[in-house]
Amino acid sequence: MTLPYELALQAADELRVRAGVDSYDVAVVLGSGWKEGASALGEPVSEVPSSTLRGFVAPTVEGHSGMIYTVKVAGHTVALVSGRVHLYEGNTAAQVAHPVRTVIAAGARTVILTNAAGGLNPSLAPGSVVAISDHLNLTATSPLEGASPPASMGSRFVDLSDLYSARLRALVRSVDPRITEGVYAGFRGPHYETPAEIRMVGALGASLVGMSTVLEAIAARHMNAEVLGLSLVTNYAAGVTDTPLNHLEVLEAGQSAAASLGDLLARLVHAL
To answer: Is the pTM of this model over 0.90?
Structure first.
């Protein structure tokens, strides 16, 4: 059986060959609602279906296309990962982390993880972007479970006290001072959280809630990448308002905010 770390190295070699690049500098994982805005980064120089790469599984969620686009931005070679997979699709933690591990193994030292999130604070209106300062991993799993990583990748007991880069969060504020910071609570899903669960994570300090990101962030930090997390608030979390929750509003919020999201990503990558 091939270990997840070895699988990522193999997939990285395949990706570089098929994309026609020697190495990547930056990776952006496109969460729900972010794909439309990513076009502001420029026309892709290559498009690689992720299902053709070793170890990848096909996404089943609307809004996740299963492609890795390569774009050139301000001297940086950027991998746009469109096709995030989740635990709730029946995947393991290692499968969820595999795309991020692959692009890091292909050279990316900066990883920008984007997502759609529910907002706990009524002042965080849908359409707001929040930089993740920390997270609560409520998935009951970790991408570092299982066999020990190779010695070259360091201990599985990775320190997460600096998981979300203070430098990159400061860069976000310099690009757009309106962006605030918050703690992201990551659940397994696919059901939305109950009002009681939202009150619980609010008491624990969370201001955002979603079903992704935390496992990818852990895997990226373990591989010594610098991590930035950005949440698009697409709806109020359960119990904050009386409005029923549905995935369609997540996609609609992303489409409405596409221009501003794309401009933010483009300015961020230029500033790196």
So the answer is: yes
